[in-house]
Amino acid sequence: MGYIDFEVPKELVPQILEMLSVAKDAGKVKKGINEATKSIERKTAQFVVVAGDVTPEEVVIHLPMLCKEYGVPYAFVPTKKDLGSAVGIDVGTSAVAVENAGGATEKLQDIIKKLPKHEKKK
């Protein structure tokens, strides 16, 4: 997919999904492309996760660019289904923004350290 601009290490995917699962219970997670976009623009997003199987890709293509612009770390997981399950919904979701990781804060920081650095655009 054209919007995936880096490869997330395979061993990191389960950690990301697990962190989301904890964050949805103890913290605050926004589900869906529109909610994630608003969260980034309002500067409340700490971390954004985008599914790798979104079609048409035009609906999420702006998210990595927005994240870079606002200096928000982000990652990709293989499927919308995995992403939906991790945040406790029965359907797949294309994007999720973590606004408060709650009990998963340490895990989130650990994940961010392992991701490629994206410099905030000046």
Describe the model.
The chain is α+β, with helices and mostly antiparallel strands and 122 residues long. The chain has one domain: 60s Ribosomal Protein L30, Chain: A (2-Layer Sandwich), CATH 3.30.1330.30. It has five helices and four strands. It has helices spanning 12-26, 33-41, 62-70, 80-86, 105-114, and strands at residues 28-31, 47-51, 74-77, 95-100. Strands 1-4-2-3 form a four-stranded mixed sheet, with helices on both faces. β2, α3 (62-70) and β3 form a beta-alpha-beta unit. The chain starts with 11 loop residues before the first helix and ends in an 8-residue tail after the last helix. The mean pLDDT is 93.
Distinctive features:
single chain, 122 residues, alpha+beta, 60s Ribosomal Protein L30, Chain: A, four-stranded mixed beta sheet, 16% strand
Topology:
Elements: H1 12-26, E1 28-31, H2 33-41, E2 47-51, H3 62-70, E3 74-77, H4 80-86, E4 95-100, H5 105-114
Parallel strand pairs: 2-3
Antiparallel strand pairs: 1-4, 2-4
Helix pairs in contact: 1-4, 1-5, 2-3
